[in-house]
Amino acid sequence: MYNILLGGAAGDGIETMAGLLEKMLKQSGCHLFTIRDFMSRVRGGHNFTQIRFGDQPLHAHRDTLDGIFTVDEKSYQEHQPRLSYDGFILCDEALAIDDFRAIKLPFKKIATDLGNPKVINSVATGALLKLFNIPLDHAAAIIKSNLRADLVEINLSAINKGYDLLESHYDLPLIETSEDLMLSGNNAIGLGAVAAGLRFYSAYPMSPSTSLLDFFNAHSSTMAIAVEQAEDEIAAINMAIGASYAGATAMTGTSGGGFSLMVEALGFSGIAEIPLVAVDVQRPGPATGFPTRTEQSDLKFVISASQGEFPRMVIALRDHTDCFYQTARSLALAKKYQIPVILLSDQYLADSTTTIPILNASEIVHYDEPEAPVPTPDHPYKRYALTENGISPLAIPGKSEALVRVDSDEHDESGQITESATVRNQMVQKRMHKLEGLKKELIEPEFWGAQQCQSLLVGFGSTSGAIKEAVDILNQEEKNYGALLFGDIYPLPTERLRHFCDQVMEIINVEQNATGQLASLIREETLISCEHSILKYDGRQLSVDDILTGIKNFKGGF
Fold this sequence. Notes:
The chain is α/β, with parallel strands linked by helices. It has helices spanning 14-27, 73-79, 107-114, 120-131, 139-146, 149-163, 185-195, 210-219, 233-245, 256-272, 299-304, 320-337, 347-351, 421-441, 464-474, 495-501, 517-526, 544-555; strands at 2-10, 31-37, 44-54, 65-70, 83-92, 102-105, 181-184, 200-203, 226-229, 250-254, 276-282, 313-316, 340-346, 353-356, 446-449, 455-460, 481-486, 488-490, 506-511, 532-535. A hairpin with a 6-residue loop joins strand 2 and strand 3 (44-54).
């Protein structure tokens, strides 16, 4: 496995370079996992992309670097402490970097001689491929499919020039892999929604959810999806609710600040019993916080968002495959129980890319909607008919002869506003009955590690990959560690947690927030306490190394 970092300022083309390089690595047979760290500015500052690649599947990043390509001295200064002793620093010969690991090459001169100084990163891409002894077989096809026609020839020349600058330093065993999908988390969410029959998506651009809006907008015609960029998040969620009321499978997306604006309408979805899926791609708050960074601090907020009480479901997306299947499932559950379902993602998962097995649309969960009720004089349609499971017959305006009344006020079975205390009790109880069925649908957290473990890590969402790898490393010496990785998180599935609680000596919660929100939820729901916490809230994702260091610190070493 190798771990390299590409660093520079916004506007230096680092993201374009990384996107092309990871495609070349993938087509050459590598598994990879890429993370992106960028500042909230158009020009300047410091951005980097970190690509981990090799011949084994990868699901998280590591801190130690095998190599750095830097456009400027700042990237070197920022990241050289993480570079291994036998690693490399690839840079232009003009940079003032005095390090025995530096490989200084005439990137700028070659780019200028080719007639376009902007192709400097393509020269460096060729050099990186040669360093790892990766053939240029796929470079031409990838350049042709990703750049404008008038830029193809000069960039291919630049890559070849860079390839010829040095000898190979590393031997990367390439494999024939069946992994032929490379997706970001947000694109995987988009594909899952499309596979589930999404017909309407509305959102206001807010990092890091914006690329989800971009995905739907780019494919709206071919995938028959109506996409609306709303004037704000309040409009976005109300549009989605309106589309769902009209019979379309609908979804909205935002980040924590935007979700704050959606809260009142979320309650409207709850009391009106209109299916809705809302994606919260988390970033650090409060207020503007860290707009381009990552965190898991919205869990308790979305569980209790909006005044009053109504059933909802919260699903934390753990990895890119999860993004696909759980998004599709969330749309089915929202329709079946006529509730809001909230998907929790975060910037790390949304913007990272990885190679995954082919997704199978035939495996996703669908909800077969029942026949629309036909009203008669003796049996008029009752939108909120009292039922044992709390789910009332759902008619679609224009597709049924029924008059479909909905209201944000409390209402009776027909949808008429009421002030009756008796009816109020009936309606609250009816809505809450849905939880009984919903709890039967819950998926227990994934277990990873030694079945007879004595130390149990618990986590949710995007920390799952790092937790898995940390557990594997810890278990190389003694089979003493296991992990429960929560996807379905509210209502909280507790059966597997209670099973391991009776067995283990300690529970360690691993979270990307300051207060241990999952641990708090577990304690509230089960009275089970976590003995230790590994928490990170600086806007940078917990790595495998962070978890190993955290365990070492409170264990006093291994």
